[in-house]
Amino acid sequence: MSTTVDLDRLLPGRVVTDPGIAAGYAVDASPQAVALTGDEFTVVRARSREDVVTTLRYAAERRVSVVPQGGRTSTTGSGEALPGAIVLSTATMTSVHIDPVERIAVVGPGVINADLKAVAAKHGLAYPPDPASASMCSIGGNIATNAGGLCCVKYGVTADYVRGLEVVLPGGEVMRTGRRTAKGVAGYDLTGLLVGSEGTLGVVTEAVLRLVPLGDPPLTVLAVFPDLAATVAGIEALRTQPHTPSLVELMDGPSIAAVQAYGDYGFPAHAGGVLLVQSDRPGHAGSDVQRYAELLSAAGATEVAVAEDRVEADLLLEGRRALNPGLKARGDHIIEDVCVPVGRLGELVAAVHEIGARHAVGTTCAGHAGDGNLHPCFFYDRHDPVSQQAAERAFDDLVRVAWDLGGTLTGEHGVGSLKVDWLAEELGTAEVNRQRAVKALFDPLGIMNPGRGIA
Amino acid sequence: MSTTVDLDRLLPGRVVTDPGIAAGYAVDASPQAVALTGDEFTVVRARSREDVVTTLRYAAERRVSVVPQGGRTSTTGSGEALPGAIVLSTATMTSVHIDPVERIAVVGPGVINADLKAVAAKHGLAYPPDPASASMCSIGGNIATNAGGLCCVKYGVTADYVRGLEVVLPGGEVMRTGRRTAKGVAGYDLTGLLVGSEGTLGVVTEAVLRLVPLGDPPLTVLAVFPDLAATVAGIEALRTQPHTPSLVELMDGPSIAAVQAYGDYGFPAHAGGVLLVQSDRPGHAGSDVQRYAELLSAAGATEVAVAEDRVEADLLLEGRRALNPGLKARGDHIIEDVCVPVGRLGELVAAVHEIGARHAVGTTCAGHAGDGNLHPCFFYDRHDPVSQQAAERAFDDLVRVAWDLGGTLTGEHGVGSLKVDWLAEELGTAEVNRQRAVKALFDPLGIMNPGRGIA
Predict the structure, then answer these.
(1) Which CATH class is domain B331-416?
(2) Are B197 and A188 an interchain contact pair (Cβ–Cβ within 8 Å)?
(3) Where are any strands of DSSP class E within B84-178?
(4) Candidate from A101, A368, A426 with C-beta closest to B186
(5) Is the CATH number of domain A2-89 3.30.750.24?
(6) Alpha carbons A288 and A280: distance in angstroms, whole number
């Protein structure tokens, strides 16, 4: 491609000229991703803000689309290559500077979430946002999707930790938003606007992130239920106490089977549903998990175990984190990310299985039960169009159920290309038009990750 | 005014037709406010969203400016009447609905902050944002300024608690942003853009606010220091421990004198500086305040007292909250709201007194020491132009010091009219132009609170 030739001249050493290697940048972790070949797009591996500026300036001059890419763990297609586009990877921009007095981290977008956690921990600090893909996903991608994960029930989402950004806009202008101070309200909050914008407004080249004191290691309860109704009763029982557990994760039987088929993480066979529940309250975690255990037993758990040590607890959490690769190993599927008011979670869970049965598609149901944010999957065989259509109809039906329950089509994965056609139905035409106008302010040529997030 | 006549016909019973009563809506709590007479503007007391729609539709048709008004506690002039404008008060829109399962409050903009706290407490829940004016300021105003206050060091600011908004835009269109669910990332985050927009984009008619479990009653330490340098040493000593106190407030000697002249709140005479420090950690507050007391003594406090009971602690906090009226009683002044990185707080405090001495103006120095956000005042006599100019120069000098220390001109009060000429210098021309374009998307006629926040 001429784009590859041009950029290789402008950015020597940054452009992937071998189509075999470029092919490795074709897809993200979206189950429905279909890979372009490595000669259908151009890969720039930016090492610096200046590399990003050069790339975005070139892209605007030549009207070439740009797909920003981080750890490629998106499940909605927001990081997949587009034909003729520049895939702009910031994966190697991994600088981390911790300021323990201000309790901030100033990081490059390529830093892996778990690596930032590890560096912060050396200073007695924590970066809470915790997607299941923490060991693979980048902070830049976390910011692009406003990623959540396993901590949100107590600690919130990525947006709650971003104080300021350096962003390169289409055309190459460098914009700085937000602040390094604890508070600051000068001007409109454009930091929040950029967080969750799915690469459609610009490319993050640096982020100032708020850190918090490192908590005690959490204690973990595993509760096994005979069916999902009882599991939901367990979730509701946890809600009767005043404080918030630091983690409340749900997995149904088919989810557990997918995880255990991927590796033995210590989950029980033949469970209708399990809950993983944690407390990290200093001085209270021990009594908390005992109380959780009692509440969950009373709610109908047939087995309740407090993880005996850190190793056992970590293994269970690792199992939860292995769910997405486990599902991928099980087969082709579409993954949901609906979020409903927590009081309606039981209805959502019931709908997943009813819808799966109605369309005769395999389902799994798992997710962040404390937030009302579930990631059900509907399985199909890509060589069987009938099965694929059935899975798509099941997916559509579940989105409508989420809306009927007062929820949203995406709690944390984002809209991507997967749900872009749905957005106007959720937000309304007037609102989508307003959002298009916001996008046009930043990206008048419409070349930033086109067709993702908003179209 | 014809506007008054027109709107009285459109909104019978909502328009203040008596200029004497209208005059009560002329100013906010800005020390430099100069009152218009009640016949120079029109006051609409909206009772509903529809009243706001009617008012904003009329305003757009007639190109009349609109000043949204809540509890009129702004210190930056953002709520002062403008000549010929409609002052649109939402003070009587005070509905509150608490959903204890979702842990949200759905409120009208006129609800007083302290009233919301009291209602939430009945459900075992808390609304943390806590401006010193909590007993007078409205949630709509808190949202307009992204208000902070005494809790921020541990609990953050208003933006951290706003899940969604209903906003009437110029021309009368009703817009809904955000969500009622715990998480949700469909579309750009326009909720965050509206929070802190100082009434320049639209009028909030309903807010969905996140609540948290009600904590234990905090325990309070009062530490008295011989001078401000020792006081700063005390603040730094607190920072050596891992967890975050729930409140760290600084007052210098002249601030204490102003408070005690306003009422006896139990503060000591002849202190160089005092710190109020709280812990609300369940099960740890007692040991926390003992450790604070030891750290503060070691840092040079001449007197350290743990409040013996709730009454004594409440009286001290009430005294801190009485600071602004106490300063007003002391005399004419300009109030700062600079925020610097917490590690530079000592330099900022030193600069306040150096600048005051250099310009020979009276100063007070107080504020949210845990955040690096101070509210120093420079006093003058409005009948003495020389003294006023000196105070203005001192104010300007302190803004520059804050910038030199890596800070911002406003931590929480907002830009208002007071600092609008400074904004471009802090953000840069390109950024201010981008923000003007954002404003124009919402308010193409430029009639929403013109000259405040951004100009």
Answers:
(1) alpha beta
(2) yes
(3) 86-89, 96-99, 104-107, 125-126, 162-168, 174-178
(4) A426
(5) no
(6) 9
Q: Is some CB atom of chain B closer than 8 A to the CB atom of A145?
A: yes
Under an 8 A CB cutoff, do A423 and B186 touch? yes
Per residue, the 3-state secondary structure of A28-96, as one string, reads: CCCCCCCCCCCCCCEEEECCCHHHHHHHHHHHHHHCCCEEEECCCCCCCCCCCCCCCCEEEECCCCCCE
Please, which residues 92-131 of chain B have a Cβ atom closer than 8 Å to chain A?
99, 101-102, 124
Q: Provide the residue ranges of all domains of chain A, joining segments of one domain with +.
A: 2-89, 96-213, 215-330, 331-419
Q: Tens-of-pLDDT digits for all 455 residues of chain A?
A: 799 999 999 999 999 999 999 999 999 999 888 899 999 999 999 999 999 999 999 999 999 999 999 999 999 999 999 999 999 999 999 999 999 999 999 999 999 999 999 999 999 999 999 999 999 999 999 999 999 999 899 999 999 999 999 999 999 999 999 999 999 999 999 999 999 999 999 999 999 999 999 988 899 999 999 999 999 999 999 998 888 999 999 999 999 999 999 999 989 988 999 999 999 988 889 999 999 999 999 999 999 999 878 888 888 899 999 999 999 999 999 999 999 999 999 999 999 999 999 999 999 999 999 999 999 999 999 999 999 999 999 999 999 999 999 999 999 999 999 999 999 999 999 999 999 999 999 999 999 999 999 99
Residue B189 and residue A193: Cβ atoms within 8 Å? Answer: yes
Question: In B372-396, which positions are buried (b, 16+ CB within 10 angstroms) versus exposed (e)?
Answer: bbbbbbbbbeeeeeebbebbbebbe
A402 touches chain B (CB under 8 A): no
Task: Output the six-digit token pair for B88.
Answer: 């649109």
Q: Could you give the CA distance from residue A425 to residue A70 in angstroms, rounded to a whole number?
A: 29
Residues 31-90 of B with CB under 8 A from A: none
Closest approach of chain B CAs to the CA of A314, in angstroms? 24
CATH 2.60.40.10 fits A331-419, yes or no: no
Residue A111 pairs in a beta bridge with none
How much is the ipTM here? 0.95
How far apart CA B52 and CA B69 sit, in angstroms, is 12
**In angstroms, what CA-CA distances link B86 with A1, A95, A385, B8, B83?**
60, 51, 61, 12, 9
Judging contacts by C-beta atoms under 8 Å, the chain B residues touching residue A438 are: 188, 190, 438, 441
Is A321:A135 a contact under the CB 8 Å cutoff? yes
B356 touching chain A per CB within 8 A: no
Which CATH class name applies to B216-330? Answer: alpha beta
Domain A96-213 has CATH 3.30.1230.20: no
Distance from CA of A54 to the nearest CA of B (A): 19
A240 touches chain B (CB under 8 A): no
Question: Does A331-419 match A96-213 at the fold level?
Answer: no
